[in-house]
């Protein structure tokens, strides 16, 4: 099944892409795709190992089977989503701070 839409989970966005770049790739069954300063991470979980490719500023995941995207928080959390097989670029939502005149990532 080919996914054409992105998947949003809190401040994280998984965008379908054709392939990940040629870079160091490791296999995982759990991986934090969205860090939280309070420990309420957004975690991709699968019984089947999936590929995680990182570059200087970018993160890609390649799923071979459906995986769960879970928000590790006890209350007021984002619902668990099932992510279909495919290759995704993981993006974080950003915001502009007019007082410091900077763009920064949004955190839970």
How would you sum up this structure, described in words?
By secondary structure, the chain is mainly beta. It has one domain. Helix content is 0%, strand content 56%. The chain contains no helices and ten strands. It is globular, with a radius of gyration of 14 Å. It starts with 6 loop residues before the first strand and ends with a strand.
Describe the structure using short key phrases.
mainly beta
Protein topology:
Elements: E1 7-9, E2 12-17, E3 25-34, E4 42-54, E5 59-63, E6 67-71, E7 81-83, E8 86-92, E9 94-97, E10 102-105
Antiparallel strand pairs: 1-2, 2-8, 3-4, 4-5, 4-6, 5-8, 6-7, 9-10
Task: Summarize the entry for a quick read.
The chain is mostly beta strands and 108 residues long. It is built from no helices and 10 strands.
Q: Could you tell me how far the N terminus lies from the C terminus, measured between alpha carbons in angstroms?
A: 31 Å
SSE topology string? EEEEEEEEEE
Note the total helix count: 0
Radius of gyration: 14 Å
Class derived from helix and strand content: mainly beta
- Show unreliable segments: none
Could you say how many structural domains there are in total? 1
Net shape: globular
Helix content: under 10%
Question: What profile does the largest beta sheet have?
Answer: 8 strands, antiparallel
């Amino acid at each position: 099944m080919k996914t054409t839409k992105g998947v949003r989970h809190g401040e994280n966005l998984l965008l379908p892409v054709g392939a990940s770049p040629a870079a160091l790739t490791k296999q995982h069954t759990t991986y934090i795709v969205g860090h939280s300063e309070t420990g309420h991470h957004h975690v991709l979980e699968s019984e089947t190992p999936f590929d995680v490719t990182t570059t200087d500023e970018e993160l890609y995941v390649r799923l071979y089977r459906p995986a769960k995207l879970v928000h590790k928080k006890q209350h007021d959390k984002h619902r668990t989503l099932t992510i279909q097989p495919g290759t995704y670029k993981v993006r974080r939502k950003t915001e502009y701070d007019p007082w410091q005149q900077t763009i920064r990532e949004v955190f839970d």
